[in-house]
Design a protein that fits this description.
Chain lengths: ~200, ~160
């Protein structure tokens, strides 16, 4: 029988390191994906995901199952990601005066990291890659809190109440945040959206 | 329902997370509002587009790094841990004790021969007043005692103080 996240965490609290291993296997990929889409840097995303697991482990003795485990987990991840994005932005502002910006430096990073796709038609592959690039950029352009809301909503499929708790806002504020994010995305992705409708 | 109120409901409608009564209300509005109908359709399309991004896989070293970092964490101890014996503290305390004993024994304290000790005991009252005597100003005003001066000593043996 599969143990719930909360049960696993309670077992970790009781000293069972094997349960921590199960949590690691369960959430390593969702966390790395979420963080990667937040910070757009593979190495940094993995470092942050490691930090999330480390914090979970460190806090095991004080763990009280008052909320869903994923709420707690993604709250830690979101806070780390938001801090990292802000730090990066500050760092970029400092360095951009002298250093030239290398276009699409992160695109190559993702290509190495993505699961390989098999495309018999090279032209179709290029079109699809162009679409993905456009979607990635549209997500990147969102303000960080809207971006986090969209990622948690779309990729983690968390419910509104849970996302609201993660982002420390009310449920109605979250709905407004998501509305604005999807409005921005539909404008940004207009060429693809019109084709899709 | 107004278009403004639709803002709070439209995502729920697209996600299929509205209650039956709310969904009926939204659909009633959409039937009469082309702008909101288009928006709902495009939100659905955006959601599908986001699904086109591939999942990424954590690197092979990810789990190993997490395990290593967890293993490197210092062991947590409760407040009762303060009372638990610690080998480092015990070692430091023993070293301090040894150092104290060694320093105490190696200090050069002069050894006084027993005969000198007896002499000192005899002169002890004089030594106690030594500071007073050595710094007693009026004594320096006394005339030098010589054979001629001995006559000035009265019968009671008291010395005449100069006026």
């Amino acid at each position: 029988m599969t143990r719930s996240d909360v049960q696993l965490m309670l077992d970790v609290k009781a000293g069972d390191t094997q349960s921590f291993e199960l949590l690691l296997q369960r959430y390593r990929s969702p966390l790395v994906n979420f963080l990667y889409r937040m910070v757009r840097d593979r190495e940094q995303a993995e470092d942050l995901a490691q930090e999330v697991f480390l914090r979970v482990y460190r806090a095991r003795e004080d763990y009280v199952p008052s909320a869903k485990f994923t709420t707690w987990l993604f709250r830690i991840a979101t806070n780390l990601a938001l801090n990292s994005v802000r730090d990066n932005r500050y760092h970029k502002m400092e360095t951009s005066i002298d250093a030239p910006v290398v276009a699409d430096a992160e695109e190559g990073d993702e290509k190495q990291f993505e699961l390989p796709d098999q495309h018999p038609n090279i032209e179709r592959h290029l079109v699809e890659e162009e679409r993905r690039k456009m979607i990635r950029r549209a997500i990147e352009k969102l303000p960080e809190k809207q971006r986090a809301a969209v990622l948690l909503h779309k990729y983690q499929e968390l419910d509104y109440a849970e996302i609201a708790k993660i982002l420390s806002c009310s449920e109605s504020a979250l709905k407004s945040l998501l509305f604005r994010a999807y409005e921005a995305l539909r404008v940004e992705l207009a060429p693809l959206v019109s084709r899709g409708t | 329902m107004s278009c403004e109120r639709m803002e709070a409901r439209i995502m729920g409608y697209v996600d299929g997370r509205l209650k039956e009564s709310e969904r009926a209300e939204v659909e009633k509005h959409l039937a009469g509002c082309a702008a909101c109908r288009l928006r709902a359709s495009e939100f659905r399309s955006v959601k599908e587009l986001l699904g086109e991004l591939p999942q990424i896989e954590p690197s092979a070293a990810f789990d190993t790094r997490v395990r290593a970092r967890v293993a490197a964490l210092p062991k947590q101890r409760s407040w009762l841990g303060w009372f638990a014996p610690s080998p480092r503290v015990a070692f430091a305390a023993s070293m301090l004790l040894l150092a104290t004993v060694w320093l105490g024994r190696s200090t050069n304290v002069p050894v006084i021969p027993p005969t000198d000790e007896a002499q000192i005991d005899q002169n002890l009252p004089a030594l106690e007043n030594y500071d007073v005597i050595s710094d007693f100003g009026p004594l320096s005003d006394l005339p030098q005692t010589g054979p001629a001066d001995e006559d000035q000593t009265n019968d009671a043996g008291q010395t005449q103080q100069p006026m």
